[in-house]
Amino acid sequence: MRVDRYFEARFPGLSFSHIQRIIRKGEVRVDGKRTEPKARLAAGQKLRIPPLKLEAPPPRDDAPAAARDRAFLKSITLYEDDDVMVLNKPMGLAVQGGSGTTRHVDGMLESLRGSGADAQRPRLVHRLDKDTAGCLLVAKTRFAAAALAKTFRSRSARKIYWALVAGVPRPHQGRISTYLAKQEIEEDSFMRIAQHGEKEAVHAVTYYAVVETSAQKLAWVSLKPVTGRTHQLRAHMAHIHHPIVGDPKYFNIENWELPGGIQSKLHLLARRIAVPHPRGGTIDVSAPLPPHMQQSWNLLGFDAKRYDPIEDAPEED
Length: 317
Hints:
Layout: H1 3-10, H2 16-24, E1 29-30, E2 33-34, E3 47-48, H3 65-75, E4 77-80, E5 84-89, H4 105-108, E6 123-124, E7 133-139, H5 142-153, E8 158-166, E9 173-185, E10 188-194, E11 202-214, E12 218-225, H6 232-239, E13 268-276, E14 282-286, H7 291-300
Parallel strand pairs: 7-13
Antiparallel strand pairs: 1-2, 1-3, 4-5, 5-7, 6-7, 8-12, 8-13, 9-10, 9-11, 11-12, 13-14
Helix pairs in contact: 1-2
């Protein structure tokens, strides 16, 4: 049998072009030597197979919902081990159900429950707004859920967000500290700036740093929330008069025009999460820019690999 046909038969999850590439690059060896895709294998020869990342075929449209949910969650997984997984949540997907929300991450996690008497359902450790993309940490076991809940309560989880905001904050690095309270107007709810001592007002602290600017009209900012309040970053950036581009609730600059080519979608990414692993060591995962933000970064000439004053800064004592 030809070498490439052997791989095709043995590993149906590999694309034929990928098979050709690993053979041509010399990653496949026959009796310790490089080979050709069309070379013939003989009985008794020793074949070296390199580490392979096999892609499972996507489920058919008529597959059970659980199979589709499982495949979708696997496709957005940035990191996974026996205790935890970090998902790259797309913008527009709710984390939990609410009025009129039927498709959400929490509901999909049921599809990852294992079989057997002690099968455990993965559970959320924290939340992201529906329109915020990026790193979402999920505990796969009760042990991990308890340990990570304690980590978040003690504020030893490090979260970094990236946003595109109107104008350029002055100074370029700073700390925002306010009280926030929930306010409902008709069927809409949002967080407003409140006074200390007000009923149900909670303290919220955010560090920010300007990474890059575009003609003083827009700024890429890196944000580090110390507290984890609802809509905290969105409310805080609006409070300092630099609301996040595409924010339907908190963008409050009259007659402000979106630069051409930039989509009117929330430009907020949960860029990175770093937390102590329940069994030792650290989970440290970064998410790529979602498509609408990548488009804006390209248009503005921003380089996502640029040094980030918050992301790359040492931990505070």
